[in-house]
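Sat 14:20. Reprocessing the chain from the morning session after the first attempt stalled halfway. Input below, unchanged.
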Amino acid sequence: MEIHLLVLLFIANGSPILARRFLGERFGRALDGGRVLADGRPLLGASKTLRGIVSALLVTMLAAPLLGVSWIVGLLLAVFAMLGDLSSSFLKRRLGLQPSSMALGLDQIPESLLPLMVCRPLLELSWAQVLWLTLAFFVLELILSQLLYRLGIRKHPY
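Finished this time. Tokens:
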């Protein structure tokens, strides 16, 4: 079960990257509509799009049953992975970091820990399993990002 959850986390977080690759700029309007807050920085940034959110939700929800996980759990994982990703983007903008810039930990932990915490009671996961899966996601995401960059799928190596 743990490996299936880890795979679903990667599907949820990787679907927006693949959707951009296959759909180009179609449906690529920024979720924040270009809004800038009082600090002069974007709310989220141009890289957070409806295309990315929808692709994460649909693909993860459809992949979950193939991995022996309820589609509802797949949907919950995707929703909270995207909320974790959006919160990271919001914090990165407040810290003055550019969209798609590297923020070690901030780029990996919320998008894995938040969905696991939400699904923990549904899946009867222990806190140790949640922490192990979050750590595994953290390490593997750094490795896979490099690989996807070298394959030309990611724009940045992180």
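The chain has five helices and no strands.
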